[in-house]
Amino acid sequence: MAERGRPKGANGEESRALLLKVAANEFAQNGYHNTKVSSIVKGANLSQPAFYLYFKNKEAIFEELEDLFHLRMIEFTKKSRLEPNLQLSTLKERIVYGLQNLLEYLAKNPDLTRIGFYISTRAGELKKQLVNEIKENLDFEVSLGYFRKDVDTQMVAESLIGMIERLTFSQLLSKQKEPAQIANNIVNLLLYGILETQLFLGDKNEQTW
Amino acid sequence: MAERGRPKGANGEESRALLLKVAANEFAQNGYHNTKVSSIVKGANLSQPAFYLYFKNKEAIFEELEDLFHLRMIEFTKKSRLEPNLQLSTLKERIVYGLQNLLEYLAKNPDLTRIGFYISTRAGELKKQLVNEIKENLDFEVSLGYFRKDVDTQMVAESLIGMIERLTFSQLLSKQKEPAQIANNIVNLLLYGILETQLFLGDKNEQTW
Amino acid sequence: MAERGRPKGANGEESRALLLKVAANEFAQNGYHNTKVSSIVKGANLSQPAFYLYFKNKEAIFEELEDLFHLRMIEFTKKSRLEPNLQLSTLKERIVYGLQNLLEYLAKNPDLTRIGFYISTRAGELKKQLVNEIKENLDFEVSLGYFRKDVDTQMVAESLIGMIERLTFSQLLSKQKEPAQIANNIVNLLLYGILETQLFLGDKNEQTW
Amino acid sequence: MAERGRPKGANGEESRALLLKVAANEFAQNGYHNTKVSSIVKGANLSQPAFYLYFKNKEAIFEELEDLFHLRMIEFTKKSRLEPNLQLSTLKERIVYGLQNLLEYLAKNPDLTRIGFYISTRAGELKKQLVNEIKENLDFEVSLGYFRKDVDTQMVAESLIGMIERLTFSQLLSKQKEPAQIANNIVNLLLYGILETQLFLGDKNEQTW
DNA sequence: AATGAATGAGTGTTCATTCAT
DNA sequence: CATGAATGAACACTCATTCAT
């Protein structure tokens, strides 16, 4: 008899998970206020009271989704710090690798991503944390001699987050580009800039950050 | 004594402008749904029906603010295309100049900026337009030989918008840095990247975008 | 054209007063929980939002009614303290007078009375206050030589409140007896007791309170 | 080891009794509407369906508690009728005895008392019955010559119930006074009144109930 | 004897919007 | 130009009660 014939969610955990999934989708699509509890439960084939069996209220389920994303993001960022004694080729590889991992997670969890990056009122807070984490990594990596000593690591970290955010939305979630491509592009841009090398070589002393 | 005898906002245009100003602030602070018509009119010392004298509904006043920002942004972007025959130093100057102008506008209109960049549901659409505009500029500029031919101008344009957006929020609106500083930072990063030059020179053939 | 033709409550104060009146009746009849905001507004020919124009919420309108009664009761009690140098006949008259006044107020405000005495969760608190007030009056009056020195004034005060409460409900609000009658009965009982005088006279030393 | 292997309340009667006990407490503390079936079963360590194994619904368990109290009260009142040929001292003793018994029961069953006297919507009905019973007793006792023929026995009965009710709540259940004390106080007040005897003797013809 | 899971029916409250003046 | 008064339409949330096991 397996699953069929069983009341929809005889297993409470399943119902809960389903609600979370549906809610993530609705929130991602319509935002917090335009997502009604009634439509979440409808999507999960449950009644309204069932919702309150598993979540204190509408805010609570949203926060649970926020937190989930939050935690993952922090994890990814922590893992991205570079080790000493890398060569340029490995260095790039390593950076791309970390970034690609992150982007792959985002691509696999588009709803959560949209919520965590754009819809959550705590998105700003999250990004600030990510920036801080990245800045520390960068400071360390500058000290390792990987990057110029004259860069403002705070600004670079902010820029990186801005790029990730934007490209995630416009290229990744819309499936225009693969995580690997995006990661490569970001890293190349960040490492080398876009200036035509000839101009650069003939004029490089000029830059003052 | 100008106003003598006349009720507070007897001048319709004044009332309208005041409503717009208050609304911008409320929307920027609290978002669309958490901004109530009742609180807008309270902030403008008017009654609720007065609101509907000047705006069709809540959506309309929001859209008016959105559009205002939208138009300015497009303008700024159009003005930023580079002319031919620039030297590196001038080139940078020119880019920084355009960017700084834009950032100065954003800094002067923080509410509008927040609305247009973060709160408007059409923010995505706006950014897409800006990206397109910038991409076209870049393509042109690449053809002028200013930038590498191997860069993906779409990605660069997206990245630039992402950086602007992020730094606007975290550095500009929070008054951590001046428009000029931010513009300089962005341009340097974009033009030169962050790679330690030694590594770069010894390894430059490797890059494949 | 006067009142007719005017939208139901063009005068806000009227609407508010009407709501209070209807609410008092509903609360008195059905208790707090069985009184729905919907039925209050129906009784006042208003819509539900109108209710919230005048009262913060259901609790607030109930508390306003509670407080109204509360204040009146305290007033009546304060006014009932006896002056010195009264003769028995005047003494009784005076006590009856105060009590009758109180009962007349209760009779004229049956809804408020039911709310304040039986429905309010703060009824206990109110009665305690009234008891205290009465006890102090009694202590003073005992010192004037009006009443026996061996009575426990606290107990008498409690008893008096108990009698008033009970007779209000069973005789006054049900219109079985007039305020004057009830006041007289209470006073006689309280002053003289019910014991057959013969027994009393022949045995009066026995009492030990 | 009695309970070994058996689920918590394997004995149905025990579960039922427990539910009744918990319910009595909750109802007494919070009233009917603020007592939730969910909190009753929680207090009894049972599930919600278990509740409906023993009681038809929430109303039924409440009524059962009401009835329990109701019956006891009627019993006590019936037993309190006085026999003929008592002397004053014995008379008082007898009255006090009956009253004390009643109060002792109330003191031992505070939850039931609160429910039956204050919370039950049938409290009014019960009190009316008690009053009737007492009035009949009084009529009989007046005919025996114990009490004045000019007292309104209905009013006295109502007053007595009012006093019992009030003192039960304020002195007995709050453990300020013992049943015996309260009984004595009530009886003394009822029999002799509070008037200073000198005034009384010099003026006693005046009373007209 | 007992329960995990679920729901029908309601209820207070909010908000954008409008009518009559 | 302006408002006091009012409302339609929704929505989150609660609670007693029941089904299937």
UniProtKB/TrEMBL annotation, chains A, B, C, D:
<protein>
    <submittedName>
        <fullName>TetR family transcriptional regulator</fullName>
    </submittedName>
</protein>
<dbReference type="InterPro" id="IPR050624">
    <property type="entry name" value="HTH-type_Tx_Regulator"/>
</dbReference>
<keyword id="KW-0238">DNA-binding</keyword>
<feature type="domain" description="HTH tetR-type">
    <location>
        <begin position="13"/>
        <end position="73"/>
    </location>
</feature>
<dbReference type="GO" id="GO:0003677">
    <property type="term" value="F:DNA binding"/>
</dbReference>
<dbReference type="Pfam" id="PF00440">
    <property type="entry name" value="TetR_N"/>
</dbReference>
<dbReference type="InterPro" id="IPR036271">
    <property type="entry name" value="Tet_transcr_reg_TetR-rel_C_sf"/>
</dbReference>
<feature type="DNA-binding region" description="H-T-H motif">
    <location>
        <begin position="36"/>
        <end position="55"/>
    </location>
</feature>
<dbReference type="InterPro" id="IPR009057">
    <property type="entry name" value="Homeodomain-like_sf"/>
</dbReference>
<dbReference type="InterPro" id="IPR001647">
    <property type="entry name" value="HTH_TetR"/>
</dbReference>
